[in-house]
Design goal:
By secondary structure, the protein is α+β, with helices and mostly antiparallel strands. It has two domains: about 170 residues, Beta-Lactamase (2-Layer Sandwich); about 55 residues, Arc Repressor Mutant, subunit A (Orthogonal Bundle), CATH 1.10.10.10. It is built from eleven helices and five strands. A five-stranded antiparallel beta sheet has the order 2-1-5-4-3, with helices on both faces. Helix 9 packs across helix 10. The radius of gyration is 22 Å and the shape is elongated. The protein starts with 5 loop residues before the first helix and ends in a 5-residue tail after the last helix.
Amino acid sequence: MRYATREPHHALYAAIADGGSGRTVANTLFQTAAAFDLPAATLLIMPSKTDRALASLVLESALPTEFWQRMDELSPLRTCALFNAIRGSIVPVQWSSENLHRQNRLMSMAEPPVLALYREYQLSHGIVFPVTSIDGVRHAIRFDGDRAPLMQAEINDLAMLALHFFQAYDKARYPLGDDPCGLTEREIDVIRWSASGKTSSEIAAVMSLSDHTVNAYMNNAFKKTNSVNRTQLVAKALRMRIIS
């Protein structure tokens, strides 16, 4: 087993920071995975309890689309223990084919069909990190390969690299000024003035609008960002880099 030393870590952090476009940043995910002998890296939207297909949630992966389609056939999301565990967690979750074998032997159950798929792609161990994007959507970064379980020091290092990667990837998707919620310029102006502490009446005076119009812009912004009050609206706008 090869463990990523501190020198490659410096190189990986630098590569992530200099990533640029989403496609280039995605390549740093695969570089990071290879450094830990877990080359099958995948970034996906966190499956919800109502999602039925994992393949449709995959954003970036070193594994082919066929793998995820077969995964959906062999291990439906509603019965997938790994994603059921990670969905409600803020800490990484590991899996191994050895543990799956042991659990099924203890319960006198047949081998899960998905293990044959894992063997075909030379996957015997993996780890999944939960992360949250700047628009509040939960995602998962998954690293899989054929190696012994990660040591705690490796998990810590890989977690930091995964977080740096996801931050860079998210910023590449939503650069400053690129509004994923469809807010108008007027609505963004109202949010910006609200963030500075001004009331609706004060915003109306600054923007030469009526109080009614300012409140209408505010209500539209609430709906578009799924916010319930001004504090949440401003917090979301800052997190999504709609305002700075």
